[in-house]
Amino acid sequence: MTGAKGFSHHDHHSCVHDAIASAERSCADQGLQLTPVRRRALEILLESHQAMGAYDVLARLDKDGFGSKPPVAYRALGFLVDNGFAHRIERLNAFVACTHPGAEHDPAFMICRSCHKVAEAEAPRGALLKGSADEAGFVIEQTVMEAEGLCPSCQGGKT
């Protein structure tokens, strides 16, 4: 897995289409239901490469007729995170669609502090902590990295 789609020009329509298709295939293969509210929550996250808070997603779901109660959004987002279709960005207390759905990986997030776009890359599994973990007898199962800075556009560059 390469690249950080959130900061580079790409065919966003295909990006969204491929992610939805991947979620549909994965749900079918695992006997899970991609309900209309779960699908819409994923579509909302896929509309831009920005992390969104649960209440932002809820407002959009409510506007689309799915209800205004917080559990509506939290259940849909929980399903997406639990099944690898989205990630929770702890630093922002927000969610972002996974750019590698269906692939086992340790995400690394680059968060632009100016425009709030988020790009996902793959972090080496536990590479930074491996020595300390080995010394402590700890087995790393997943690592999530979050870095904040400026994307190329906000630095004045072109993407």
Would you give an account of this structure?
There is one protein chain. This protein is of the alpha+beta class and 159 residues long. It has one domain (5-149): Arc Repressor Mutant, subunit A (Orthogonal Bundle). It contains five helices and five strands, in the order H-H-H-H-E-E-E-E-H-E. The chain has helices at residues 12-30, 36-46, 54-63, 70-82, 130-136, and strands at residues 86-89, 94-97, 107-112, 118-122, 145-149. The strands form two sheets. A three-stranded mixed beta sheet has the order 4-3-5, with no helix packed on it. The protein has a two-stranded antiparallel ribbon with strand order 1-2. Helix 2 packs across helix 4 (70-82) and helix 3 (54-63) packs across helix 4. It is globular, with a radius of gyration of 16 Å. The two termini are 19 Å apart. The mean pLDDT is 86.
Count of distinct strands:
5
Q: Using only CA atoms, what is the Rg?
A: 16 Å
The overall number of domains is: 1
- Major sheet details: 3 strands, mixed
The end-to-end distance, rounded to whole angstroms, is: 19 Å
Number of helices: 5
